[in-house]
Amino acid sequence: MLYLSGLSIALALALIPSNSEASLKEGECEVCISFMGRLYQSLKDDDIKFTSADIEKALVKKCKDAKGKENRLCYYIGATSDAATKTINEVTKPLSYHVPVEIICEKLKKKDSQICELKYDKQVDLSTVDLKKLKVKDLKKILEEWGESCKGCAEKSDFIRKINELMPKYAPNAASARTDL
């Protein structure tokens, strides 16, 4: 009898999923967790009903304005118009039950590992960086983040001049902190 109860305990422990292999590592799924966290907070702030349909509307609306890695996340979960798959329910249904975004992203990772491979680009500190030492690609990225472009820019100095012109508008604190303007 004692042998049988020990066997049932061992079987029960074997069936309980191990938390160590399933949980997310530090820094993993940063785009998913950040984006979904802001979505959840905006739903609470705007007093939106936590139904799957209302959450889906809010998600699609937020994804229309998303850029860069967040837009790619929206594409992977099917919340953009050009998405090939549609797994929005994997987000909306758990959110309607107030499931933590970390768990939602963990489940999304199991469906599509690309979701957790997304990482934010490192932000450039415009108040201290020497623009002349940046690559043209990075200068273009700064302008793109501001929603601007540099038509007719052929050389690095053209991009630097454009950034310096627009910095007071898009990064006023950085513009006032710079001494080389």
From TrEMBL:
It is found in: Secreted. Gene3D superfamilies: SAP domain (1.10.720.30), Saposin-like (1.10.225.10). It comes from the Eukaryota. Residues 128-170 form the ARMET C-terminal domain. The keyword Membrane does not apply. Keywords: Disulfide bond, Secreted, Signal. Residues 28-124 form the ARMET N-terminal domain. Pfam families: ARMET_C, ARMET_N. Residues 1-22 form the signal peptide. Belongs to the ARMET family. This is Mesencephalic astrocyte-derived neurotrophic factor-like. It comes from Huso huso (Beluga).
